[in-house]
Automatic annotation (TrEMBL):
Residue intervals passing through the bilayer: none
Name this polypeptide is given: Zinc-binding dehydrogenase
Organism: Pseudomonas gingeri
Signal peptide coordinates: none
InterPro entries in alphabetical order: ADH-like_C, MDR_fam, NAD(P)-bd_dom_sf
Molecular function as annotated in GO: oxidoreductase activity, acting on the CH-CH group of donors, NAD or NADP as acceptor
One Pfam family from the record: ADH_zinc_N
Alcohol dehydrogenase-like C-terminal domain: residues covered: 15-106
């Protein structure tokens, strides 16, 4: 990671995501968290110090994420998969990196998602 890059962290209010985002802030990155609900997003910004947090339960989630990542995404720390992953992929800059920690959205799936919607 380089200072000034934009990092998006899925499950930002959780144990892993919260540490990833805080370390990135110490390294000078712009950090955008994704969490479920207004209370969790407030915690991510006010307590953890992220630059922004987007509620994945919002009706306008993808648009709000795009607005928060106005320079695109350089690093996406993946914990979730599913619709969160789908919203981040179009925002990835050339040579973006995706460290993969988990794909919880699909843990109980009985079959892979349909269509060519995954890398």
């Amino acid at each position: 990671p380089k200072a000034g890059e934009t990092l998006v962290v899925a499950a930002a209010s959780g144990a892993v995501g919260s540490v990833v985002g805080q370390v990135a802030k110490l390294k000078g990155l712009r950090v955008v968290g994704i969490a479920g609900g207004a209370d969790k997003c407030r915690y991510v910004v006010d307590e953890l110090g992220f630059d922004a947090c987007i509620d994945h339960k919002s009706e306008h989630f993808a648009d709000e994420l795009a607005q928060a990542c106005f320079k695109g995404v350089d690093i996406y720390f993946e914990n979730v998969g599913g619709k969160v992953f789908d919203a981040v992929v179009p925002l990835l800059n050339p040579k973006a990196r995706i460290p993969l920690c988990g794909l919880i959205a699909g843990y109980n799936a009985h079959q892979p998602p349909s269509g060519p919607d995954r890398l």
